[in-house]
Amino acid sequence: GQQVMQIPQYQHVQEGEDFTTYCNSSTTLSNIQWYKQRPGGHPVFLIQLVKSGEVKKQKRLTFQFGEAKKNSSLHITATQTTDVGTYFCAGRAGSYQLTFGKGTKLSVIP
Amino acid sequence: NAGVTQTPKFRVLKTGQSMTLLCAQDMNHEYMYWYRQDPGMGLRLIHYSVGEGTTAKGEVPDGYNVSRLKKQNFLLGLESAAPSQTSVYFCASRGTAYNEQFFGPGTRLTVL
């Protein structure tokens, strides 16, 4: 079945440093979504990427979808303590289901 | 709108006991999902439903049953709980703008 790999599993950064998490799928995706889960909370939708090579920005967050539509990344510029949480990618390959990566847990040291 | 709600928030069961987790959404979404989240394992799909009266198996369906008798409700049942089912359970419904998933607050279940 479809697999979505996400690295790294954990990332500790000093406040102000940049952060990147990477997502790779075993199959070509129709789209990819990103979610954020704050500690003790539930996943919250951030964005969806659909087109090959697509780049979207949300303030300090930059999302990319690879040309082959099998990989994606989320980059945060100048992290803040409010960025703390686990970031999940989730890929869809044409079905009703999303396949979630295992997530990257971000810690920000003030 | 309340969005997606789940009851109960916490539950402790003994091995072999049964229980039902209730998920409700007031957004008129067709698709609903049940996930479990375990440390280091991400979100794994248990069962899902594409509409009232329909259900389908996800990645990890064993030991669970579901029902979708009403569009707004999706029930997850454990007939004979096992310690391996200790987890946080999230329900979600699928929106129509981006097919994004709206998650409930979760149920933390411990099976002793």
Describe this structure in words.
- The complex is a heterodimer of chains A (110) and B (112).
- Chain A contains no helices and 11 strands.
- Chain A is mainly beta and 110 residues long.
- In chain A, the strands form 2 sheets. In chain A, strands 2, 4, 5, 9, 10 and 11 form a 6-stranded mixed β-sheet that branches. Chain A has a 5-stranded antiparallel β-sheet with strand order 1-3-8-7-6, with no helix packed on it.
- The termini of chain A are far apart.
- Chain B has no helices and 11 strands.
- In chain B, strands 2, 4, 5, 6, 9, 10 and 11 form a 7-stranded mixed β-sheet that branches. In chain B, strands 1-3-8-7 form a 4-stranded antiparallel β-sheet, with no helix packed on it.
- Chain B is globular.
- In chain B, 34% of the residues are buried.
- The mean pLDDT of chain B is 95.
- Chain A binds chain B through residues 1, 6, 9, 31, 33, 35, 41-45, 48, 88, 90, 92, 96-103, and chain B through 31, 33, 35, 40-45, 48, 50, 56, 58-59, 90, 95, 98-106.
Give descriptors for this structure.
heterodimer; A: 110 residues; five-stranded antiparallel β-sheet; globular; B: 112 residues; 0% helix; 51% strand
* Largest pleated sheet of chain B: 7 strands, mixed
Give me the strand/helix succession of chain A: EEEEEEEEEEE
Overall pLDDT of chain B: 95
Distance between the termini of chain A: 41 Å
Question: Helix-strand pattern of chain B, N to C?
Answer: EEEEEEEEEEE
Strand content of chain A: over 45%
Shape annotation of chain A: globular
Radius of gyration of chain B over alpha carbons?
13 Å
Poorly predicted tracts of residues of chain A: none
Give the helix tally of chain A: 0
**Rg result of chain A:** 13 Å
Morphology of chain B: globular
Global structural class of chain B: mainly beta
| Largest interface, chains and sizes | A-B, 23 and 25 residues
State the helical fraction of chain B.
under 10%
What quaternary form is this?
heterodimer
Strand runs of chain B, count: 11
